[in-house]
Amino acid sequence: MTIAATKTLSLQQFLQLPETKPAQEFIEGEIAVKPMPKGRHSCLQYEVCNAINQVTKTAKIAYAFPELRCSFGNRSLVSDIAVFRWQQIPFLPDGQVPDRFTIPPDWTIEILFPEQRSNKVIGNILYCLEYGSQLGWFIDPDDLSILVFFRDRPPLLAREDDILPILDGMTLELTVNQVFNWLKIGI
Q: What is this structure's pTM?
């Protein structure tokens, strides 16, 4: 994640700027540019979103959004995957999804890029938890591990056949191996 040198901005001023590709995040007065997704990142992002939405969307339990900007506190973050419980989605009167989310996701998922600093990414997960998120996953494709963060207890390092914790009320069972096996699409 690259930090851009800028004059001091407020969150409201940042939100008035045009969106960019790659996405920019606003973290305590500074603008940070997220790296452009590469193959493994894109594959994991799609597959995790798809697995969650297959078991939650029809039953209106939750929805997993890829690359959704959420602005709250003094940050505007773009989680790789932001999962909201259905009742937390701030639907518009006609039932459409709004463009702006001003609350943290119930579950934030980040997939580490090789050029990212892990502590910055983990810091964003911890910030989400501080502001109300229930769960956070930090997926490390190089280490083949997923660091799971909870709001109410210490983190858990999950590997191999460990079953991954998910939001209460969801009927999804995934192991770490299942998640990383989604990268093997050429077999």
A: 0.91
